[in-house]
Design goal:
alpha+beta; five-stranded antiparallel β-sheet; two-stranded antiparallel ribbon
Length: 326
């Protein structure tokens, strides 16, 4: 950001925020192998460079960080009109696993909360029960630039009762079809995809690059749907703390209870932090603080005004700063 050596900058961030010990790991069957002390930061640029520090190779599960990508897959498969006949695009002040909006409006508020994501999984499963999971894993592979795999310690039989309740409410209101178990199986598998912090940054960089993987050059998401995904990541991606995130960080992002956060700097880079100590919203405590620092240090907020300190005021200035960042 402000350094010519990004990895030295990341090392300084690790040193600065490692003493932060607040928060509690999720410690559920859906979040296997989450050591309290794990901490990593990564940057992936749209030209394919990756910089990382800390436990950057430690595997963890995507959990809710899978939701933007499943939403994108549904948009590519069914189109905006069909998708948004079943899920809204409004932020919610409720928790990520709330059922309140289903009782009130009968449709999930957005695809970034559990009810909306289960709806996306149900659409994909019911459209192709025999191959929906394969299509999903192939999609994740295009973002990762390698074969996508489930975490080896994932408990595929785990069915949180609240998600079961959400599935039955969705069926009650005719939002999804009859095969609730199949929809929840796909949902559990999408949450169980194994990634590292470097992987997560590259997935974000693929979104930053208009839906094309920076290294393989394979398209993971139609360009016309990238805006949709980034918009909902910005307004809804950090659970019921999305407003505070927009104010303090100002980037499209998504968190997960495994401890990861990914964020997108459109046209420039993807960023990722992993630390499993969570706050009351389900967001990584260290992750949120690191992103605040990165945004401030690099003036990364989407609302930074050109001409401010460090903010490019012309395409040439932007090119020069990008070369300096790299």
């Amino acid at each position: 950001m402000t350094d010519r050596d990004p990895e030295q900058y990341l090392q300084r961030l690790l040193k600065r925020f490692r003493p932060e010990r607040d928060g509690t790991p999720a410690c559920t069957p859906e979040t296997p192998d989450t050591p309290r002390g794990a901490f990593a930061i990564a940057i992936a640029t749209v030209d394919g460079q990756v910089f990382s520090a800390g436990h950057a190779d430690h595997p963890f599960t995507l959990q809710s960080m899978s939701k933007p990508f499943i939403y994108g897959l549904a948009l590519d498969r069914f189109g905006r009109e069909a998708v948004h006949a079943r899920v809204n695009v409004e932020p919610t002040g409720e928790a990520f696993n709330s059922i309140t909006e289903l009782e009130e409006d009968h449709l999930p508020y957005n695809p970034m909360i559990n009810s909306g994501a289960i709806t996306m999984s149900a659409m994909l499963h019911h459209a192709d029960p025999d191959h929906g999971c394969d299509a999903m894993m192939e999609m994740f592979g295009r973002y990762l630039g390698r074969e996508a795999k489930l975490h080896p310690k994932l408990d595929l039989k785990a069915r949180p009762h609240r998600n079961l309740a959400i599935g039955h409410l969705l069926r009650h209101f005719d939002v999804i079809g009859d095969d609730i178990e199949g929809a929840l199986d796909l949902y559990g598998r999408q949450c169980g995809v194994a990634v590292s912090t470097g992987d997560l940054a590259m997935m974000a960089a693929t979104l930053a690059n208009g839906g094309v993987h920076p290294r393989t050059r394979e398209r993971a998401l139609q360009r016309k749907h990238v805006r949709d995904v980034l918009t909902l990541m910005f307004t809804c991606g950090m659970y019921d703390a999305s407003g505070h995130w927009a104010y303090t960080v100002g980037l499209p992002a998504k968190s997960g209870i495994s401890g990861g956060i990914l964020a997108v700097v459109p046209g420039r880079m993807g960023l990722a932090v992993y630390s499993p100590l969570l706050d009351g919203h389900g967001n990584s405590v260290r992750g949120v603080e690191v992103f605040k620092a990165m945004s401030a240090d690099g003036n990364l907020s989407l609302f930074a005004v050109p001409g401010e300190d460090g903010v490019p005021s012309s395409p040439e200035a932007a090119r020069q700063r990008a070369e300096s960042d790299a």
